[in-house]
Amino acid sequence: MAPIRLELTARLADALGLLDAPGVRVVSAEPAPDELLLTVHAADYVEAVRRASTRPVASGLRFGLGTTDVPTFPGMHEAGARICAASREVALAVWAGQAGHGVNFTGGLHHAMPAAASGFCVYNDVGVAIRALLDAGAQRVAYVDVDVHHGDGVEKIFWDDPRVLTVSLHENGRVLFPGTGFPEEIGGPHASGTAVNVALPPGTSDAGWLRAFHSVVPPLLRAFEPEVLVTQQGCDSHVLDPLAHLALSLDAQRASYEALHEFAHEFCDGRWVAFGGGGYEVVDVVPRAWAHLIAIAAHRPVAPGADVPDSWRDYVTARCGRAAPQRMTDGADTGYRAWSTGYDPADAIDRVVLATRKAIFPLHGLDPYFD
């Protein structure tokens, strides 16, 4: 979670002319007050984060703090609280019609639990944003998470809330953190069918991933009829990412962002709130992926074949001592087979998709086998 990945993303977006494009506003946020954090987090947990933020220790703290995944550091509380405030403000601006789409690529900290830090995540800004939408009057919020890791914290927060549909496409928890997110995890007793998990096998690449995405996400959005779409664009599903085992290209990731943008217009009158998330190849992948996300949300898409600005490449060389990618693409084909082509029991991706569809689709009046 090195902050340089955010710096490089912002600089690339700026170099591409996205941050000062017509209709785009870049806004800052003050750290969220405790009252906002307490909408999703326990009071004793927030207090523990605050203490660890002023007196960092190497290990041994409660609540998942002071671990390898969540080391403590000075200002930790303020940093996490600022991200939460930003995510809330973006979400409410979209809900109020002050913005058509909103992006906080510093957010997407989807592993944080109500009373525990987890997976590099201290405060769950996505949960805070969705809770703010509900408090503002939203009755149906759809959350789609394409991070390589299961969006367990957001799912946990809204596990038994029928107003929130959480959909997570991730690498199978049997081989990857956090070890959860299986098809049979479908939501609480008052919200059965609103937690949706697609647990993909290691090595899944573009065509299989996109087949799974399009076989699950749009039918459920159509059935759920959300008023606003909230999405998490962790880009650690990329083949170069060092922490996971999927094999997506930048082009497939970009294609999913385009599709989510289209879904927002098709199902939610355009209301789309997008966040960052994981992503640990901090030069070749994260900045390009999230620059594409910003561009799509700004209705100024960057052509995949476009050159990366020389000014940004020069900065990367000076800052990181390594060469930067030359183009905004990996040159991959993003074609895939639609579910309407039929189920293939010999295909591992199809077996995964069918398991999810069989667990969830009947609860929404949908056929698991046919579109």
Automatic annotation (TrEMBL):
* Domain Histone deacetylase: residue ranges: 3-295
Matching InterPro entries, A to Z?
AcuC (IPR003085), HDACs (IPR000286), His_deacetylse_dom (IPR023801), His_deacetylse_dom_sf (IPR037138), Ureohydrolase_dom_sf (IPR023696)
Q: Which UniProt keywords apply?
A: Acetoin catabolism
Named in its record, the pathway it takes part in is:
Ketone degradation; acetoin degradation
Q: Which residues form a coiled coil?
A: none
Signal peptide, first to last residue: none
User: Known Gene3D superfamilies for this protein?
Assistant: Histone deacetylase domain
Query: Which branch of life, at top level?
Result: Bacteria
This protein's record includes keyword Iron: no
- A single Pfam family, by name? Hist_deacetyl
Is Magnesium set as a keyword in this record?
no
Q: Which family does it belong to?
A: Belongs to the histone deacetylase family.
Record protein name field: Acetoin utilization protein AcuC
> What's the source species' lineage?
Bacteria, Bacillati, Actinomycetota, Actinomycetes, Kineosporiales
